[in-house]
Amino acid sequence: MIHPTALVDDAVEIPACTNIWAYCHILRGARIGTNVNIGDHCFVEGGAVVGNDVTIKNGVFVWEGVVIENGVFVGPNVTFTNDCYPRSPRMDHAATRYKDKSWLVETVLRTGSSIGAAAVILPGVEIGCFGMVGAGSVVSRDVPAFSLVVGNPARVVADLCCCGQKLEGSCLTESCSACGQTPLQRQALLQELISSSTETAHES
To answer: Per-residue pLDDT tens for 124-160?
Structure first.
């Protein structure tokens, strides 16, 4: 479903089971997966990748170089960036730097990760599988899989289960009191996702 007020550029394929809500703009060259929900007033730039089963809440701008894998949650007003040292490309002094894409830094949100409302994700960061970023946090370094990070700068404060339940101890040793997932099941899933990601990278 594409809302009548949304603007989707030519050649962008939107699967029938994906919802693009009011006043969104999806640029040519963006890749949008199946069973995705993109809320009001969002922008997806060409070169951005949104996987399957992703939820993007209102007011999120997904820039070129941002890769959102399957099952990711992006809260309202999350900020992504893709240039560590930005200048206006229209300024003469910066023209040489922006002649090619060497300035572009990729940011990756791995499968099942979640980004809380109004968090800021700096360029080059990887949010690990099922990692979670607390609301309003500023993330300047990679977030390990199954970790909850909060603050500015964001730091690890707890481990989480795949279901989102906070664990009393380490994800390597604690079973989940909510869904019953064991550490062995958790690690097996992680290895499966890593292997799948590696195979996909080799194919592309």
So the answer is: 999 999 999 999 999 999 999 999 999 999 999 999 9
| For residue 153, cis peptide bond before it (omega within 30 degrees of 0) | yes
Taking a C-beta distance cutoff of 8 angstroms, is the pair 183, 173 a contact? yes
Q: What is the 3-state secondary structure (H, E, C) of 150-182?
A: ECCCCEEEEEECCCCCECCCCCCCCCCCCCCCC
Torsion of CA 195, 165, 156, 66, to 10 degrees: 50
What are 35's two structure tokens? 């069973």
Tokens of 77: 């007003």
Report the CATH number at residue 131.
2.160.10.10
Pairing of strands 7-8, 25-26: parallel
- DSSP conformation class of 165: P
Give the domain extent around 155. 65-166
**Bridge partner residues of 149 (DSSP):** 133, 156
pLDDT band of 204, cuts 50, 70, 90: very low
| 3-class DSSP state of 172 | coil
The total of structural domains in the chain comes to: 1
DSSP structure class, residue 167: P
Q: Which of 118, 27, 46, 124 is nearest to 85 (CA)?
A: 124
Pair 6, 21: CB distance under 8 Å: yes
